[in-house]
Amino acid sequence: MTLYDHSSEDIITRQEAFEQLVKERLQYAVRIAFINVLEEEVTAFIGAKPYERSQHRRDQRNGHYSRHLDTTVGEIADVPVPRTRGGYHTQLFERYHRRRDELDGAMQDMFIKGVSMAQVGEIIETLTGLHPSASTVSRVFHTLQEEYEQWKARPLAQRYAYAFADGTYFTVIYQSEGCKMPILAVVGIAITGEREVLAFRVGDRENQQAWEDLMEDLKARGVKEIGLWISDGNRAMLNAITKHFPTAQRQRCVLHKMENVLSYVPSKQREQLELELKALFSQESRQQADQAVAAFLEKYQKVYPTAVECLQRDLEACLTFYAFPKTHWKTIRTNNVSERLFGEVKRRSHKMAAAFRNEGSCLLLFYAVIRGLTFHKLTMPPASQAQPDLVLLHST
Questions:
Q1: Which residue has the higher pLDDT, 68 or 269?
Q2: Does the keyword DNA-binding apply (predicted)?
């Protein structure tokens, strides 16, 4: 047997012992760092070191009390926190907050990204030796509520170049039964190109008052003008937009329109017709688009009269995007901006494999997901090169 001939079990035991030693040393170092910071902090607060006579003294020490603090290296036990007669409170951690902020943040991020509450607890236990319960993870997640309330009330810009409006559904428990709950949302693109979710709320997509409430919220927070609204053909939504933003132009989502048109065409003929419909919205100019439309109508007027009637019903709104910068056409001719947003939230909610317990939980998760999204900035042309509508938005 050689000097280095050790069994695998022996190697594993030594490795575990080494890791435990490193962990203990880290915890000891963190504890000493906390003590030093606390002592420096209370000295600055009082204006004098222990037993030091000073004319600048503002308070007197009054012993210590012990705190246990959960950190990313495990629990730090019996940290002596200084007291003073005047009621000093350390800024190192919140008065009743036993867990370091970065640990709470890690639990929030894991849950938001789709890790179950039970799995979050297991991961935290692996990293720190502590095992937060599912209810603890839930409470940590719901600390976002105050941030969400502030976000809902934040002021908005006066003008946006584009706004995308749409709605979707999530399953929520009402009186012990899972029901579809609608959420209405508006995404805006500022005149500088930044993209953000402006607002979202509960409301029936077919209810005009729900859409009006959403529009009124935007105006109450400072929005005065929208250059172009992009949406589907929902009449309740369109009526609310027209009422509150009467000067805004409207772009009908061409994907939704094509789906509506093709629903009147036999399934065997849809593939070819879909290619020709797409071509109407992929021309190099509005003039060429008008020529393509005229040829399409003439070709199919007698073959698919109902489909053609559907296309003509709000055709002008489908072609509005041609009046805006060409580099924006791909973004503004469909409502994919809203669809992708809803997709991100649903991808997270589907991992829960359960309905939301109430509306509040659903709305809070919606906010938690969008706050972590990164939106691409839309390159805006200089005012001198922009179409009239964008020039107006830049100058007013």
A1: 269
A2: yes
